[in-house]
Amino acid sequence: MEGEVGTTILGRLSALADITRARLLLVLERHELTVSELCAALQLPQSTVSRHLKVLADEGWVTSRADGASNRYQLAPQLDAPVRRLWQATRDQIAGLAETTRDRERLRSVLARRPTRSQEFFSSAAGQWDRMRVELFGARTELLPLLGLLDPSWTVGDLGCGTGPLAHALAPFVRQVIGVDESTAMLKAARFRVAGLPNVELRRGELQALPIEDATLDLAIVVLVLHYLARPAAALAETRRVLGPGGRLLLVDMMPHERAEYRQAMGHLWQGFSEGQMQDWLEEAGLEADGYHPLPADPVAKGPMLFALSARKRSDRHS
Known about the structure:
- There is one protein chain.
- It contains 13 helices and ten strands.
- It is an alpha/beta fold.
- It folds into two domains: 2-124, Arc Repressor Mutant, subunit A, CATH 1.10.10; 143-313, Rossmann fold, CATH 3.40.50.150.
- Strand 7, helix 11 (232-242) and strand 8 (243-254) form a beta-alpha-beta unit.
- The protein starts with a helix and ends in a 6-residue tail after the last strand.
């Protein structure tokens, strides 16, 4: 038994009898690192690091775990008391060396680059990642969590609801959704989409004469509708009427553009809206703008750039 213990200690001691292996253990004492990270920290070739890691692993100084295509190494967490004393004595001797000091400094840079490398991976694999994410979780995972910010007690108006995708998305997060659209065909498709959602009510009507009682809505959402209206200012005034005290408006539409063909092809009456024009109409309607924000262009989108505008009902004006 004593011979076996002595052999074990001698093997551990033999593994430590090399400054490179001692340096490896020093950086692995507090961090779990890959071979490439160890190469960068110690400025050694991969073959050298791998060879020394094998010796350390064979003598029980390090453990490893698989992490994708790489292995991560660390100082063995369960060292016997005699072995731990052996390492402590070695550590005290090498910790202040110039080489090990430089190792620690380079290791800090290696660890700082970890987030950067992950960002580089996602940048280089963005196309594949987007496809995988859509396959796993659907197409709107970056936006859907924002719905959780809505107050569950709210009544929300989807004004110009079309076929109802927004009303369908809002329904689980608020008390009630009231969708309004002028098109019978659009409402038919919307009713099919929101079937089974008891808190969604669809109504036929114009945005210039909303079929909604005064001060009913906590939030009104108007997405890609305003450019179809002959009198946008009237629609904004109606929106204010149906907003309750402190009620808010979220509006998304096109920025000014030169696509005159949209008038003939799709019935657009306006070629987008500038920030100044929107601010004038909101002021006239009794709504106070919080911001006009150009939205990032989708690289596959063929239409004009969009803006998002938020506003709130002013309290110094009565309906």
